[in-house]
Design goal:
By secondary structure, this protein is of the alpha/beta class. It is built from 13 helices and 7 strands. The longest helix has 19 residues. Bound molecules: S-adenosylmethionine (SAM).
């Protein structure tokens, strides 16, 4: 071996190749490959059960899309549900789902085209607001204020929502939000909590789901994350042609959709469940 002059700084390289990767640490490899028992979206129904939804409950499913969760709420709890979503296509899809669900279920669900910011419902007329994965799209303060208004005192709003973490870079977030019709400030968890309190909700529970639902989907085989990555790679290489044929908007929205799950697994996005309580006000005003 021909000795060289000591090079600038090889400490990091020696550490990496000479120590950390000197030989495979089988225990470590086994440990990091272990599934970590991620919870599934079922957990949201467990929360609803814990909030004592029953046949006498009136539930508002806000941002209900095709009413799939409204139907499941009726199946499980026998409650009455208003499924509200302002997108006309979603109303059409919901009507089809209700027809498939059968008359008994359908009779317990009313469809509405209401947006969260202006709910056409009476004060204190609901026992639960179910808000699953929709608050990123809305004007948060008026939306939460409306949910508070329509809840009866003591009732709760159950929220599943995803926020950005400090690992999200500004360029990544800008592109993601622009192409997913997201209000950037709603991706800030502190902002969400501040707004919830400002409209008089009490944050009763915060359950960090982080990447669990996505891990669950990958482990269950319902999401193929390798496929998502490969789709992005293929789309990037074919960008010019795809944009020319299908338009920039569809191209960017599709990339954003695939990135959503990847960012969750990378920890750039993180989901949470909240129980927001409309407190019962007690005590008379002092004169
Ligand atoms: C990501 S989807 C979630 C749908 C459903 N809640 C779920 O978890 O599968 C977001 C939904 O929010 C609805 N949405 C968007 N803006 C809304 C608003 N201002 N008020 C009510 N719903 C809204 C969309 O139409 C869409 O159905």
């Amino acid at each position: 071996m021909i000795d060289s002059q000591p090079a600038a700084d090889l400490a990091g390289v020696h550490k990496l190749y000479g120590e950390l990767w000197a030989e495979q640490n089988a225990d470590f490899e086994t440990e990091i490959a272990k599934p970590r028992h991620p919870r599934s979206p079922e957990v949201l129904f467990d929360y609803a059960a814990g909030l004592e939804v029953n046949v006498d409950s009136r539930v508002l499913d806000i941002g209900s899309r095709d009413a799939i969760h409204a139907i499941e709420l009726v199946r499980r709890f026998g409650c009455q549900v208003v499924a509200a979503d302002p997108v006309p296509l979603h109303a059409e899809l919901a009507r089809k789902r209700l027809a498939d669900a059968g008359p008994e279920i359908a009779a317990r669900i009313d469809l509405s085209d209401a947006a969260i910011e202006q709910l056409p419902f009476d004060d204190v007329s609901f026992d639960l607001v179910w808000s699953r994965d929709m608050l990123n799209h809305v004007a948060l303060r008026p939306g939460l204020a409306e949910c508070w208004r329509v809840l009866r005192p003591g009732a709760a709003m159950l929220v599943f929502q995803t926020f950005a973490t400090p690992l999200m870079e500004p360029g990544e977030s800008r592109r993601l939000y622009e192409n997913h019709s997201i209000h950037a400030e709603n991706m800030d968890q502190d902002h969400f909590e501040e707004v919830a309190r400002s409209v008089s909700f009490v944050i009763e529970t915060h359950d960090p789901i982080t990447s669990e639902w996505r891990e669950y989907a990958v482990e269950a085989g319902t999401t193929d994350i390798g496929d998502c990555l490969m789709t992005i790679a293929r789309m990037r290489r074919a960008e010019q042609d795809l944009v020319a044929t299908y338009g920039r908007a569809l191209y960017e929205a599709t990339i954003a959709d695939h990135l959503w799950g990847i960012y969750l697994l990378l920890g750039k996005l993180s989901s949470s469940i909240y129980v927001l309580r409309k407190q019962v006000l007690t005590g008379a005003a002092h004169g």
